[in-house]
Every structure is written in structure tokens, then in C-alpha cells.
Amino acid sequence: MSFRRNPIIAVILVAFALGFTVSGADQRGGFVDLCAFTGANLTDHFLGLYCLNDATEVFSYNYTWINLDYCVGNNAGTLVSYENGAYSGTCTNCTIAHDATLELTCSCWDMDNHHVTSTLDLNGTIYDADGSAACYAHKGNKTWEP
After folding, report:
1. From which residue to which does the signal peptide run (predicted)?
2. Which of 21, 69, 118, 119 is the most exposed place for a label (fewest CB within 10 A)?
3. pLDDT for 111
4. Superfamily of domain 24-143
5. What is the DSSP letter of 39?
């Protein structure tokens, strides 16, 4: 089969060569450069942190919080980036840890009805949308103070 005869295959190969991916996760990610995640906190399934707004005349951080159920799911005991994943219904004892990135760790039910520990790097899931933490099409709330 020739690529000239099947242009769709040629386009797919070019897309992969350029680094495009096909996945359910939001590919924007990268919030660690624009959010002060070292002050992040997790209350129930809401993540709160400071993110940089786009108003260059103000150029400051907004306190933002987002419901991680919009961003994270439980896939057979493994935390995954998944729109409207509602992980909190099957995961407990969740914590966040931050060093060079921000990680969510929970105890989640697997397919054998056991709790297993799983960790997800939120930098590939959450992004800064003008001072709001966001994932997929969901934007979190923002205020000037927590």
C-alpha cells in the first residue's frame, strides 16, 4: 500500500512524527510553571492553589480551586486523567504531594474489590486558564484570597 493512495495514513504518520497524541487526557497541562503549587491544598476532592492571571497590568496570582472529579477518574484502581471521571466515588484517603510537580495519591478500589494505592501527576491534567485551575473544558473558581 502506498501513502499516495491512502492520504489518511500519511496524515496520521505525520501527526505522530510531529508529536501529536491521541488520548483522552487534556494535552495542555503544564500548570507547574504558572501556579504556586507549593501552597496547594486538597479539601475533600477540591484542589486549591494560586495561579497567575493574564492581566499584565496587575500581574498577580489568584486563589483558585477546582473539583478534581471533573478531571480525574479511577480505572480499575489506577488514577487517570479523565473528563468527568468522578474518582472520589471510588477512591479514599487522598493526599497531594509537591516537589517538582504536584501529585495526587489515593487508595482506590480495583476490579478485585481491593483498595490499591495509586498516584497521578496532575501537571499533565491541570492547566492555568487566566488564574483559574482548569482541566478539559472545566474552569475552577478564582478569588483574590482563599
Report:
1. 1-25
2. 21
3. 95
4. Cyanovirin-N (2.30.60.10)
5. E
